[in-house]
Amino acid sequence: MVTERMELEIIGEVAKIANSTMDLQERLNGVVEMLGERLETDVCSIVLLDEESDQLVLQASKGLNPEAIGHVRLQRGVGITGTVLATKEPIALRDATKDPRYYYVPETGEERYKSMLCVPIIDDKERAIGCIYIQSVEERDYSPGEVEFFQTIAYQISGVIRHAQLYDRSRRRLEQLTALYEVGQALSSTLDLNEVLNLIARSSAELTQATASVLRLVDFDRNELVVHASFGLPELVEEIPALKLGEGIAGHVVATGTPVMVEDLHLEPRYFGYMGRDFQTLLCVPIISKGRSIGALSVLDKCEPGTGRTVPFSPANRRLLSTFASHAAAAIENAFVYERLEWLAREKMMKIRELSILYEISSAMRTTMNLDKLMQIILSCVTLGDGFGFNRAMILMVDEEAGALVGARGVGPDSAKEAGEIWSRLARERRSLYEWVTAHDELGEGQGRRFDRFAKSLRLSLDRPDEVLSMTVRERRSFNITKAHSDPRVDKEFLRALGAETFATVPLLAKDRVMGVIVVDNLFNAKPITDEDLNFVSRFANHAGLALENLLLFHNLKELTGELSAVQSRLIETEKMAALGEMAAGLAHEIRNPLATIGGFARRLHKKLPEDFQFKNYASIVIREVDRLEGLLQDALTYSKQVPPSLEPCQVNVLVRDMVDIYREDFQDRGIELNVNLDPALPVVEADSQQIKQVLINLFSNAMQAMYRGGTLTVGSRPWPTAGGTGAAITISDTGGGVAPEVVSNIFNPFFTTKREGTGLGLALSKRIIEGHGGDIGVINREGEGLTFVLHLPPKGP
Amino acid sequence: MKRILVVDDEENIRLLYQEELGEEGYEVAVAESAEEAMDMIEAERPDLITLDIRMPGIDGIEFLRMLREKHRDLPVVIVTAYGEYKQDFSVWASDAYVVKSADMAELKATIRKVLPPG
Description:
Shape of chain B: globular
Largest sheet of chain A: 7 strands, antiparallel
Largest sheet of chain B: 5 strands, parallel
Helix content of chain B: 25-40%
Strand content of chain A: 15-25%
Radius of gyration of chain A: 60 Å
Largest interface: A-B, 22 and 17 residues
Number of helices of chain A: 19
Order of helices and strands of chain B: EHEHEHEEH
Oligomer: heterodimer
Number of strands of chain B: 5
Shape of chain A: rod-shaped
Helix content of chain A: 40-55%
Radius of gyration of chain B: 13 Å
Number of helices of chain B: 4
Strand content of chain B: 15-25%
């Protein structure tokens, strides 16, 4: 029996509990414990309505199975508590088990309690938010006063709950705001896009107690939703495919701009799934910036604190996540803008750097006018270049006439080891690009020879329409081959020799034509060739092409100038010679007159002097000397005249025979035997008969003089086969004893003579005549025996 | 007796030729220039003229041309130290061309050949 005093005390206790700083659960526990004891009941329990599920949940109990707390749920309207909640009227029963509304929940315990007093807990808005009830094993009645008292307590408890809920809500709100604030701080502390995105993904999961989260952003160029960050499923981020806008839950969210909550993903038709991971609950909100959706934020499998169960997300989660998403949107936008700025700045830096590299290269290219050196500089720039360095590079030049690309120069290490040495040297020695490329040959004369040789050995036809090098020339653009072995545009032979899986080709343009191709590869470090790299090389190739063209023009000019110079020199020489010749000729002619006079009178003297005159021979001597002078003069004039042969078909055998006939008597007088072997099959050759006769005269008279004591003269002729047809060979052999070995080499020199009465010009003149015919003359010295002269006359003139 | 006019600017040549040709049985007159030769021809026409090319004043070629205007068939033998005139067309106006030499056999034979008989 509860007295008034006790009632006051109980109310006081409840008030004390209500005002304590314990959390709601503890307070409820405290209340039921205290009530159960004070009112001496077996059971005192509080059930509260869970609005989201519309179920009455056992929140606190003294006497019932503790395991049931939190788990026992009754639908609204079910059981006595359900009725009380619905009617908002208390129910007092002597034996509840006999009441049709009685609903036994086994989890609460074995005992079936009989008497029950249940009153609703009403909040300040007159809504029933739960019930509080007491039960006893034995049957008993409850007086109206007791019911009224219990209602008072319920009212108080309503206050406790409200208070606690308010406090909770405030606390949670504060927590959320704090969390949001902290996240906001973190977001604004970084402008690194990736950091921002990852932070957003993690925070969204934390804020909503989710197990995993996925952040997707819209790629406006492709109209796709791409995963940019995630939390809780690291290894799958790469695998998640992009969604088309409108596809999937996220797509729908972005398209409509409204959030979506799913309680069971297995039943959701729009769900795409994440390979291998099985999720159940999902909340997805749009990320909206400046009025348009730029992405979607999804959180998965909310984990109930304390129990670890997967539970659906609540509207509160949705509101929080939406708020968060708008913060995130701002941060993302900022990060994007920053990234773009950074990219622009980087681009600008790169452009500046490129320009300065190009400037350095141009300067280097101007240091040389040597074609090979220029090519070496060009290729060095491409291989040593700071950051753009390819492993190997070569130039092939277009040979338009041959319709082919011919390898001109290659620069690159011969082996990976050599490559490594070069790179470490580059790293150690700090020099400007200019210094490096102009001093490149310091890197070792022997290094890179193999690649250079290989490059120079290349010769590729330009005629092939589907081969990458031909295409480079024809289409005047570069190509980046990433898989050489399987690319149909790559010539197999070329690939085998080159050996690189990735290479690129760039045309060398000069004004309006393609001069050649630069081929670069990264054989040793297998670094892929980016479009950026290729663009740089292309721009550079234009400079290189111009430089090469200039150099070639310069060389042509130099050659032409050189030729002109040479021609000019020759002209001057010829003129000089001509002048000299004229002078000499004039002089020679002037000498003739006095000679004629001297010799003429000497002859008269000789004629007039009697035979026995003691000094008659003086006159003879003068006559002979004058004759000799006249002969010399004539030879010299003839020799210097350089008359070109007037070519006619000539029967050499006839000439020889004529000559033999003329000299026959003289030979006989001197006791010289004649052997003539002329081949009747000797072909007709083009020659100047007069000049050939002169040569024969010269040789015959030489032979005659050599054989002053007699001998044998052998004359022969036979066909002389040459590349241009069959000519004639004539041999004249004497038995005059030959000459000393040191004489042989001088025998054809002008003014060289061993004879007392010779001008030394005869053989020189003969040689000139024969060579003027395009033939040659030679001598065989048969020491101790004699000389053999061999003449060769070609079938057609020189 | 046939009359030969020797035209040459060198005194020694004139002397030599006069002696040598005189011994051959010719009447020999000498002129030291083309102008003198023209006068002498007008005064007394020779049977043959030996002519040097290189002379100061009017040279042999010019003299020959002048001569031919008046005396078309007067035999002329060019005797000169210069070999290349052999290629000059104008020398075809002469009847023969001999290169001056200490050995006058060729000149003598040529004169004999060129002189008209009788």
